[in-house]
């Protein structure tokens, strides 16, 4: 077997992982679709010792497969292991937020008082009535498999919610309950997209959308938006990007990471375009629906004229009900599509947790839009938003679009790019600015690059007002030493 490179590893298996990751360079390969892939061997190597040899990948280019073979010593002698990964997995980008999150965690563990404003989850506990329902479910032995699509009790409750709050009519067989909205979205993308189809995604986007399109062998088509338009999609841009391959448009309102809320009129304009393109479906991610600040109001895309048949609505319990760890989301749509997702789920995870489903029924019984408990959380989020918006508006060189929902602020700090810092280097984008703010201000934020907009940084205000006040003062102090090189 021809060897392109060989590497030495120590024999101690516990150290193999870290040594492998230090000594092996990612092997960049290009397949016939010209996608760039990289292989990382570290996770496969903890049980493989001694030297590894990587097979010459060039011989595999014609077969559209990546092969990388390692030689390993085992108790039976030398053996070869093909550690290549599927092209599908290799096409998925690792999360760019991981590096800064890991760095922040390492600092906290080392005793550095880092304020973490990177999380995408409410800082509130699950309301007691929901938690009690979960506890009772366990006590009452409600701990067995449920139907794959979810219990009929929960699906009926979801139908009532969609009718009363969203003006949408669904029957329980048009609802699929999953382990979080993330699973609902991935299954929907896989169910409707064929290889080569295009998935249209307005940017800034939730980090998972493009990667989910790639996992479905579809092509993400990014539609940039402007901060001056409150990061809302320009219908003309959408129209100009539609081709016969366009299969799915993903809308997220209120949006992660921008907090923008699509006004009904704009959604109607988009619906008019969708109506003219019969192949195009819309996935409407409404998971932040209840975290919305009046006068903004939420419109479900499926409720628009002629859009019910064309829309896959995704929602869940993680955000509004502070239930991230309960892992529960759902899809509502025409039966044909929901059944397809149900089939995927039946061979994948089966039904969601029986305990969480009981808790979710209690959540939906808390009243319109989550009742008092959710209103209290939204009030707190609003106060925090107002505090941060006011503060950052007064800072030189920061551009802002006031969020109307969710619990994120997506701020344009690009006027600070280009600054040179002694002992740190050049700030050349959102990632280096986040590293600088982590280093200097000890505040962990997420670079906008991860969301498809390098001019911005995402601040999650799912933290107490006093924590946000401290974080703001630290950021302000750190920015003052970076004179904005470009006036805004
Ligand atoms: C826009 C958006 N959609 C979907 C999800 C997934 O939520 P979950 O899987 O927790 O229900 C998230 C979580 O961060 C999100 O921000």
Keywords:
488 residues, alpha/beta, Aspartate Aminotransferase, domain 1, Aspartate Aminotransferase, domain 2, 3 domains, 7-stranded mixed β-sheet, 3-stranded antiparallel β-sheet, 14 helices, disordered N terminus, binds pyridoxal-5'-phosphate
Characterise this structure:
With about 500 residues, the chain is an alpha/beta fold. The termini are far apart. Helix 5 packs parallel to helix 11 (about 355-365), helix 6 crosses helix 10 (about 335-345) and helix 12 (about 370-395) packs parallel to helix 14 (about 465-480). The longest helix has 23 residues, at about 370-395. The chain folds into three domains: about 5-90, no CATH class; about 95-120 and about 370-480, Aspartate Aminotransferase, domain 1 (Alpha-Beta Complex); about 140-365, 3-Layer(aba) Sandwich (Aspartate Aminotransferase, domain 2), CATH 3.40.640. The protein has helices spanning about 15-25, 85-90, 95-110, 130-140, 150-165, 180-190, 210-215, 235-240, 265-275, 335-345, 355-365, 370-395, 430-440, 465-480; strands spanning about 5, 30, 35, 50-55, 70-75, 75-80, 115, 175-180, 200-205, 220-225, 245-250, 280-285, 310-315, 330, 410, 420, 425, 445, 445, 455-460. The protein has a seven-stranded mixed sheet with strand order 8-14-13-12-11-9-10, sandwiched between helices. It has a three-stranded antiparallel sheet with strand order 15-20-19. The protein binds pyridoxal-5'-phosphate. This is Bifunctional aspartate aminotransferase and glutamate/aspartate-prephenate aminotransferase. Pathway: Amino-acid biosynthesis; L-phenylalanine biosynthesis; L-arogenate from prephenate (L-Asp route): step 1/1; Amino-acid biosynthesis; L-phenylalanine biosynthesis; L-arogenate from prephenate (L-Glu route): step 1/1. InterPro entries: Aminotransferase_I/II_large, AspAT/PAT-like, NHTrfase_class1_PyrdxlP-BS, PyrdxlP-dep_Trfase, PyrdxlP-dep_Trfase_major, PyrdxlP-dep_Trfase_small. Keywords: Aminotransferase, Pyridoxal phosphate, Transferase. Belongs to the class-I pyridoxal-phosphate-dependent aminotransferase family.
């Amino acid at each position: 077997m021809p060897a392109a490179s060989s590497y030495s590893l120590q024999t101690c298996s516990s150290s193999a992982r870290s040594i492998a990751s230090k000594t092996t360079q990612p092997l960049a390969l290009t397949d016939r679709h010209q996608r760039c892939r990289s292989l990382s061997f570290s996770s496969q190597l903890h049980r493989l010792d001694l030297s590894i040899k990587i097979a010459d990948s060039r011989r595999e280019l014609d077969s559209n497969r990546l092969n990388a073979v390692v030689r390993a010593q085992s108790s039976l002698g030398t053996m070869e292991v093909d550690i290549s990964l599927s092209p599908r997995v290799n096409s998925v980008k690792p999360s760019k937020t991981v590096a800064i999150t890991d760095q922040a965690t390492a600092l906290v563990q080392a005793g550095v008082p880092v304020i973490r404003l990177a999380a995408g989850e409410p800082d509130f506990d699950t309301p007691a009535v929901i938690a009690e329902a979960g506890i009772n479910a366990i006590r009452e032995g409600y701990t067995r498999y449920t139907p794959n699509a979810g219990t009929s009790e929960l699906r009926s409750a979801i139908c009532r919610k969609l009718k009363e709050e969203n003006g949408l009519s669904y029957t329980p067989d048009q609802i699929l309950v999953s382990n979080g909205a993330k699973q609902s979205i991935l299954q929907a993308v896989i169910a409707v997209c064929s290889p080569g189809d295009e998935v249209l995604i307005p940017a800034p986007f939730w980090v998972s959308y493009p990667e989910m399109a790639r996992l479905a062998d579809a092509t993400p088509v990014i539609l940039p938006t402007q901060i001056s338009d409150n990061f809302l999609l320009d219908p003309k841009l959408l129209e100009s990007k539609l081709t016969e391959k366009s299969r799915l448009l993903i809308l997220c309102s209120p949006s992660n990471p921008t907090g923008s809320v699509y006004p009904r009129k704009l959604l109607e304009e988009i619906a008019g375009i969708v109506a003219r393109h019969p192949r195009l479906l819309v996935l409407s991610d409404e998971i932040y629906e209840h975290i919305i600040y009046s006068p903004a109001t939420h419109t479900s895309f499926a409720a628009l004229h002629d859009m019910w048949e064309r829309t896959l609505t995704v929602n869940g319990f993680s955000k509004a009900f502070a239930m991230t760890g309960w892992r529960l989301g759902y899809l509502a749509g025409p039966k044909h599509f929901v059944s397809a997702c149900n089939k995927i789920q039946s061979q994948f995870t089966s039904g969601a947790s029986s305990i969480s489903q009981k808790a979710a029924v209690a959540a939906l019984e808390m009243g319109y839009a989550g009742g008092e408990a959710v209103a209290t959380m939204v009030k707190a989020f609003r106060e925090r938003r107002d505090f941060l918006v006011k503060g950052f508006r007064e800072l030189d060189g920061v551009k802002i679009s006031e969020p109307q929902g969710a619990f994120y602020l997506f701020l344009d700090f690009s006027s600070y790019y280009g600054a040179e810092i002694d002992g740190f280097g050049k700030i050349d984008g959102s990632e280096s600015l986040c590293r600088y703010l982590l280093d200097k201000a000890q505040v962990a934020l997420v670079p906008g690059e991860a969301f498809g907009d390098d001019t911005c940084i995402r601040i999650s205000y799912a933290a107490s007002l006093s924590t946000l006040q401290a974080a703001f003062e630290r950021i302000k102090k750190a920015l003052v030493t970076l004179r904005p090189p470009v006036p805004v």
